[in-house]
Amino acid sequence: MAMSKAKYLPEELIIDIFYRLPVKSIGRCRCLSKHWRNFLSDPQFIKLHFNLHAHTQEEKLIIVSWLCELHTITLSHDILEDAFIDSISTKVDFQQLTHNWISVAGSCNGLVLVIDRDNVQFLINPTTLEYHKFPVFDWALPPKTSCYMYGLAYDIVSDDYKVVSLSYRDTNNEFMSNTYVDLYSVRKSHWETLGISPYDHSLTDRASGVLVNGALHWLACRTFEYSTAIAAFDLSVDKFLEVPGPIDLQDNCFMCNLATLKGCLCVSTSLPRDINTVTFWIMKEYGVKESWTKFKIIEPSLDDSLSTLLCSITDDDDVLLDVDEEWVIYNLKENRRKDLLIDVNPITHEARTFVDSLVSPYFGNETEGSASKDSTKTQHHIFLHPQIKSLAMRRPNGHKRIEIARNQNQTNLQVTFSKRRVGLFKKVSELSTLYGANVAIVAFSPSNKVYACGHPSVESIVDKFVKENPPPDTDDPNPLL
Description:
- By secondary structure, the protein is an alpha+beta fold.
- It has helices spanning about 1-5, 10-20, 25-30, 35-40, 45-55, 385-390, 410-435, 460-470, and strands at about 60-65, 70-75, 85, 85-90, 100-110, 110-115, 120-125, 130-135, 145-155, 160-170, 180-185, 190-195, 200, 210, 215-220, 230-235, 240-245, 255-260, 265-270, 275-285, 290-300, 305-310, 320-325, 325-330, 335-340, 350-355, 380, 440-445, 450-455.
- The chain folds into two domains: about 55-355, Neuraminidase (6 Propeller), CATH 2.120.10.80; about 410-480, Transcription factor, MADS-box (SRF-like).
- The protein has eight helices and 29 strands.
- It is elongated, with a radius of gyration of 28 Å.
């Protein structure tokens, strides 16, 4: 009986429930009402929702198949004692785009940077199926005769997602070549040329930037002494810095690759002389040379082939290896190999991890020229399932204009007050949640019952108001009015 009398949930409870819902449930709720859609699409809500779920989200893989299609890979939780791990692959299908992908070049906060055969860059959210096509840019080098590398990162200083592009001439020789640096701001929807890199990136493996500690990292060569360095592009100052590498990195830099392992920068190598062995170093304390720690995976089943450490995929010491174009999950703690079974053929070295999120790929620039007639401007697209789209586009019955006048019916008066009180308290909750405002409201019902709502509390707000606005010395019974 008590439950049947409760017609409304407290607004703060509804908001708290929203924060705890998974991403796909939020997507469904967005389609139920315009008010919910506006609130659940608010950048502040999206940021808080992501921060709440960031460390509990299950990581997935995203790959490009040999058919130039994008697929997400979810690992099975039912990991048996067999020598394999099953997985579920899902094709990422954008109805407005053709399947012409060649590279997954970066991942950050649920957003993924993908490149097509025409060297056109797209920032996508594989979960919400939103995508953002980058505008046309006058590159320093022609894409068809040059090599390009990319990296995606979030700049906490400017609250912006940025893409770094490195390009050099594809000369196929051993002479150093200038590497040009370009920077794209997602918030500004704008490319910017930064000049020539102080490092030569043409003599190392062509790879995407590795995001660690707010910087994008590449293996490169110092131009003045022809030696290997770890070049880190700092997003806060938009320039390259150098991270100290392992002591013995110089001898085998051309057979190395960078990756992340449990959030730490990692260098791995598998040389022909190291039979059945993958050697890697982990920088346990970022920027500290002495913190590099060397590890080895010695596994006879590696079949003496070159192996590449692609990424870490769980918090349980599992890493993903590319072993002679076959993917292997190796547990560093148990020293055990498991083959990863997937039903698509991936392009090697192109696995990226990502998490489900609500972050929009046209982050912060929805109103900055998106409706311009200029064809080079950014294009924004949101995909809705046809059934959900039809539900969301249903025409409402409309609202009748209500004359503002005191209700003379006592029963209706109490009901109307209850509804209006819920709306007022909702506004208080939104002000405090979205904008961090300190606010309080006290209301007396027609039956003289008091209701109060505030953040951080009604008492603290009233005390602060009284202290900063002391009542005047007067006989007026209502000195604060």
